[in-house]
Every structure is written in structure tokens, then in C-alpha cells.
């Protein structure tokens, strides 16, 4: 037997859960430069070292794959925005805002595609988007020690919409310093909620 005819090391078979996680991770790695709707299944499969048809063994449709990547990205955003345990309440919203601005700076195109996809009525994006915003509203209400009623939820949701739009524009064309942006966002929230 020659060196070239020797079998290589045995290939490890991944469990279905491991393979799905790997494929979602590849999608997440591509998000800083590629909005989720523009991910190509061929590129994801190539990076995973599998065939396109095998990818569809783990995700029945492109939409199912895109939904899994979108949900994973939303979970990462949520984890990124959460205040560290023990953070004083008065610093929680400021820290969350600062981390959100950093997130949009890093993932601007993907984040805007996420927001626009939800606004455009794409049901799989809208579902993940609404869940994420609902969690963020609860976090803000808790941090601000506000009652969780319909009025406050509506006001905080409106503030999130304003924040998404302004931060998205600011990242593309900064018209004020980062500190001025954060001050403005905090001021608008305080005015809306009466804090």
C-alpha cells in the first residue's frame, strides 16, 4: 500500500443537531457582510463541506434555514443588549443603548435588512422581529421601573422604532457625536415615558 492509497482519517459524522448548529453558525458568520435574505445555500453548503441537497436534509426549505439564522442572530442581539448582573438600574438603559449602537455599526446591512424585512411583511422575519422587540420592551420597562401597561408598551415600542431608524441613519452618516446620539435617545425616551 502506498502513502497515497492509504485511507485518510475517518470522517466524523455529526449528529443532526450538531450539523444544524454548524450551518446556522456559518450563516451568522456571513451576516456582517450579507443580509440573511441574500445568503446563498450553495455558499453555506460549500463552507460546511456538504452538498446543497444535504443542507436541505437539515432544513426543509431556504425559508426554514433563513428563519433559523435570523432567530439565532436575534438571540445574539438580545444577549448582547442584556445588562450585566448587578448593573444599577439607572445605567441599564444607557448601557443597552451604547451596545445597540455598536451592534448596528458592526452589522448595519444585516440589521437594516432584518428591520426592513419585518416592515415589508415577510412573515418569518416579522415573527422573529416582533418577539425580539417584545423582549426588549419588557427589559426597558423593567430597567425604567415603569408599569407594564398598554400605554407604556406603545410608547416604548414607538421609541424603539425611532431608535432603529435614527441609529441606522447615524451609522451611515454621523451628524452628531456618539455621545450626543446616546443623549438624544435617552432624552426622547425620558420625555415619552415621563421619566
From TrEMBL:
Keywords: DNA-binding, Transcription, Transcription regulation. Residues 17-77 form the HTH tetR-type domain. The keyword Membrane does not apply. One of its GO terms (molecular function) is DNA-binding transcription factor activity. InterPro entries: DesT_TetR_C, Homeodomain-like_sf, HTH-type_TetR-like_transc_reg, HTH_TetR. Residues 40-59 bind DNA. The keyword Translocase does not apply. This is TetR family transcriptional regulator. It comes from Blastococcus colisei.
Amino acid at each position: 500500500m502506498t502513502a497515497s492509497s492509504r485511507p485518510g482519517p475517518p470522517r466524523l459524522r455529526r449528529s443532526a443537531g450538531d450539523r444544524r448548529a454548524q450551518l446556522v453558525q456559518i450563516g451568522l458568520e456571513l451576516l456582517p457582510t450579507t443580509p440573511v435574505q441574500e445568503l446563498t445555500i450553495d455558499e453555506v453548503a460549500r463552507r460546511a463541506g456538504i452538498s446543497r441537497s444535504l443542507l436541505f436534509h437539515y432544513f426543509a426549505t431556504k425559508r426554514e434555514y433563513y428563519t433559523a439564522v435570523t432567530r439565532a442572530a436575534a438571540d445574539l442581539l438580545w444577549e448582547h443588549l442584556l445588562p450585566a448582573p448587578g448593573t444599577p438600574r439607572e445605567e441599564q438603559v444607557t448601557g443597552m443603548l451604547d451596545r445597540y449602537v455598536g451592534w448596528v455599526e458592526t452589522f448595519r446591512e444585516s440589521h437594516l435588512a432584518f428591520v426592513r424585512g419585518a416592515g415589508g411583511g415577510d412573515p418569518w422575519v416579522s415573527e422573529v422581529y416582533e418577539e425580539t422587540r417584545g423582549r426588549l420592551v419588557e427589559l426597558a420597562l423593567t430597567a425604567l421601573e415603569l408599569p407594564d401597561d398598554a400605554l407604556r408598551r406603545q410608547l416604548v415600542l414607538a421609541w424603539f422604532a425611532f431608535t432603529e431608524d435614527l441609529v441606522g441613519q447615524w451609522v451611515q452618516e454621523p451628524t452628531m457625536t456618539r455621545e450626543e446620539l446616546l443623549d438624544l435617545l435617552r432624552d426622547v425616551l425620558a420625555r415619552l415615558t415621563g421619566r
